Model the fold of this input.
Amino acid sequence: MKVERKVKMAEEFTSEEKTGLYKAIHSRRDVRSHFTSRLIEDEILSKILNAAHHAPSVGFSQPWNFILIKDSQTKARIKESFEKEKESSSQLIEDPKRSKYLSFKLEGILESPVNLCVTYDPSKFGPFVIGRSSIPEAGLYSVCCAIQNLWLAARTEGVGLGWVSILSNDVLKEVLNLPNHVIPVAYLCLGYVDEFATKPDLETAGWLPRLGLKDVIFFEKWEDKENLSWKNIQNIIKTNPDYA
Ligand SMILES: Cc1cc2nc3c(=O)[nH]c(=O)nc-3n(C[C@H](O)[C@H](O)[C@H](O)COP(=O)(O)O)c2cc1C
Done:
C-alpha cells in the first residue's frame, strides 16, 4: 500500500519577518533592573512558554519543565541564596575587580513579577533517548535551546528576562521541591521593563568587550583563520563593520 505523506512546502519568510527575527536577536538583553509594575498577562506568558516548549530537543525528549513562581517567600529564599553565593564568589577575585563585581546588579528576583525555574528531567520518556547515548549533555543543551526561545519570545513581547546563575542548586532543589534526579538549569526573572539597553551591561561597564565575529570563527580546523578555501567569507567578516 502506498503511504501518502503530506509535506508542508517550505514557507519563505517575508523581508519584514526576517527583520523582526534579527531585531529580536540583536535587541535581546539580559535584564535585571528597569522592571515596571505592569504584570505579565497570562495570555502573553503562555505564548512565551509555548515558544520555549517548541525548541529542538535531543530525540524529541522535551526534557524541560517550567516552574512559575510569584510567591514572595519563595523569592526571598532564592534572593538569600543569591546574596550568599555572590559574596562567596567575590572571594575568588581581588580588588579593584572584586569591588567592581560586588557593585553590579546581577539579579531582579524581588522586583520582577514572575520568576521561572527551567529544569532538566533526564528520565522523561525512559532511559533511551535517540542521540543522547554518546553525549549525555545533549539533554541539557536541549533545555538551553528552550531557554533561548523563551528569551527571544519575551523580548518580542517587550518582556525583560534576566538569568540568575549566582545561586546554589541545592537551595533551588530544596525550595522548589525538585526530585533528586531533576536538575535546575536556569532561574529567570521576567517582567515588563521600561527600557532595553543597546549593549550588554557588562560591556558598558567595561567588564569584558564583545569579540569581533572574525575572532570566533575558524575554518576547517581549530584556530585556522586564513584557510584559502573560505577566502570570500573571511573578507566579508573582516570588512563589514556590522561584524566588527
Ligand atoms: C547561563 C547564563 C547565566 C547567567 N547568569 C547571570 C547572572 O547570574 N547574573 C546576571 O546579571 N547575568 C547573568 N547572565 C547574563 C549575562 O551576563 C549576559 O547574557 C551577558 O553579559 C551578555 O549580555 P546580554 O544578554 O544583555 O546580551 C547569564 C547568562 C547566561 C547565558
Notes: DSSP finds eight helices and four strands in the chain. The pocket of flavin mononucleotide is lined by residues 29-30, 32, 106-107, 162-166, 200, 202 (CB under 6 Å).
